[in-house]
Design brief:
single chain, 261 residues, globular, 2-enoyl-CoA Hydratase, Chain A, domain 1, Lyase 2-enoyl-coa Hydratase, Chain  A, domain 2, alpha/beta, three-stranded mixed beta sheet, 11 helices
């Protein structure tokens, strides 16, 4: 059985973390499998949205602590292993953000440490009622420094700092209130609710969603004047698209657009 399963339905790809015995932890194999699939999706124009889900009791419990403990047995105390591990994890998170397609996390059970980082990295998220979110490495003497990067770009800093320094978990409702997830659904409706969100994205012009996602993250780290200059150029390029011209004409003529893409 594959540690990561992919199932495509129309323009939506579903990736399912499939290591329930270890709560879908980001083991070496899982990181490799995720990186491979996202690299494949990057160049797949038939896919316009991606759902990331997990099997078993949890979405993802973060890094595999047993593997990390084993890594400490090296002569250097694990320094090289840990540097490589966190570099590969960072590469995965950056790949998700750079992916042309929006990625939606479908979260249940728990999302802790790097698992919470994964949710924060995805472009959108839907959580089941009863889901808990934490960056609770502090409870075992490990500050969740890399998960902090994505988390502090999603939720208010004081709330993130409280989570990081106390190990406190957010409920699904709290996660929605602070912006970590887009919506909360009953567990039995989680998949259908996530799919509805994905279908809403795939119904739009794919080329525009692609440039929009790239611009969204680029402008977010720019000073305001620079962000306006950059996004103005993006809109100029967008306005020159034939499909955009058709979309505007269709709106004015009160009809559905006929798009090439």
């Amino acid at each position: 059985m594959a540690i990561l399963e992919r199932c495509d339905t129309g323009a939506v790809a579903r990736l399912t973390l499939n290591s329930p015995k270890c709560l879908n932890s980001l083991s070496d194999k899982m990181l490799t499998a995720l990186q491979y699939q996202f690299e494949q999706l990057k160049s797949d124009p038939s896919i316009r949205a991606v759902i990331l889900a997990g099997t078993g009791k949890a979405f993802c419990a973060g890094h595999d602590l047993k593997q990390m403990t084993a890594g400490r047995q090296a002569e250097d105390g694990g320094k090289a292993y840990f540097a490589d591990l966190f570099a590969r994890c960072t590469r995965l998170m950056l790949t998700i953000q750079a992916l042309p397609q929006p990625v939606i996390a479908e979260v249940h059970g728990i999302a802790t440490a790097a698992g919470c980082q994964l949710v924060a990295t995805c472009d959108m998220a839907v959580a089941a009622e009863g889901t808990r979110f934490g960056v609770n490495g502090i409870n075992i003497g490990l500050f969740c420094s890399t998960p902090m990067v994505a988390l502090t770009r999603n939720i208010p800093r004081k709330k993130a700092f409280e989570m990081l320094t106390t190990g406190r978990f957010l409920t699904a409702e709290e996660a929605e209130a602070v912006g970590l997830v887009n919506r909360v659904a009953p567990l039995e409706d989680l998949q259908s609710e996530t799919e509805r969100l994905a279908e809403a994205v795939t119904a739009k012009l794919g080329s525009v969603v692609k440039i929009g996602k790239e611009a969204f993250y680029a402008q977010a780290v720019m000073p305001t004047p620079e962000a306006y200059d950059y996004t103005a150029d993006v809109m100029v390029q967008n306005m020159l698209y034939r499909d955009t011209e058709e979309g505007i004409a269709a709106f004015l003529e009160k009809r559905s657009p006929t798009w090439d893409q």
